[in-house]
Amino acid sequence: MPTPLTPATIALVKATVPALEAHGLAITRRMYERLFENPEIRDLFNQSHHGETGSQPKALADAVLAYARHIDNLGVLGGAVERIAQKHVALNILPEHYPFVAEALLGAIKDVLGDAATPEICAAWGEAYWFLAELLIGREAAIYREQAAQPGGWNGWRDFVVESVTPESAVITSFVLVPADGGPVLRHKPGQYLGFLFDLPGHGVLKRNYSISCAPNDRAYRITVKREAHPDLPAGIVSNWLHDHARPGTRLRVAAPAGDFVLDQEGRDPVVLVSGGVGLTPMVSMLEEIVATAPERPVWYVHGALNGRVHAMRDHVRSLAAGRDAIRLHTVYAAPEAQDRSGDHYDASGLISAEWLTAQAPDTATYYLCGPKPFLAALVNGLRRQGIPDARIRFEFFGPADALDDEALRAA
Fold first, then answer.
1. Would you call 103 a catalytic residue per the annotation?
2. For residue 397, what pLDDT is reported?
């Protein structure tokens, strides 16, 4: 454990909260500008979160502000620390990278706040940064050890080969990946994702995370990827490359499974798996695992899609549920098309509501949710209003590690 922060440091950091509320985003934007002057450090990051939307600087600004507000009660940030550590492991972040971030952050504070960033303030934030960094470094080291020690486990980047490619809808395709060395794979926890490193002509090194959409096994992983609409924007470069160029035999560099959004495999209480769009990927992994290991466990699998053209894995999910009374399926299309038949392709039109969900499932159910931020904001906040305790609401968001922390979600 790192050395506890001094009372003087805690007081000085808390005193910066108003400045962070006013200038936090400017500080984190400037921090990344400074950080990315070093190409080796820039390539550690997922650049899709730094493009048109600027979601990562905003997420980091929110995280820094939350850290300052709660620096005298850091227990409330435990979940955020775990999410960040898991993301860092998927990106292969190592202890030697942390000093670069420290230099960039403290330099950005000085650049943005000017004379208000006194030597005392900068020293306090330096101490606070390294306290958090040491927490993360320790947790990340433990995760790396766990990954390497398990059968089929590894650290760093491992070569995989695309074994098969399966279109799942007009915009979503599945890729089954096997190790190029012919060895086994680490059995992931249902809900986890893989980190990928791409070196694409004209774009350089790019990193992405994709959820694993199959149940744990010793042989292969499956990822199910949506083709983003804008292929030249950061968020679309890799997904479009995979759709256009990845074929059986294509080699990919892959990090071991990571992520803290995982199915409770020990419990047998009912679960409600709720997804929007391509957010179904971790839910299919969870559903496959339940069918394989706990077929009597009650499951509500609820999926929302725009229409049938973009609804992925419909037949696969139906095959998993066929003949199993414990599994209930419900599909909602926001804008059904003429060829979409109610009662056949989908069950209802419109949007999934928290009121509907809680009316279907028993009080003991745990809710797992994954999808776009507005989808999650509506349902997570809705479930809370329906009296579902936070301990039974678990969610994943495809974006920066802290883009959907509790405070941001409640404000959405």
1. no
2. 75
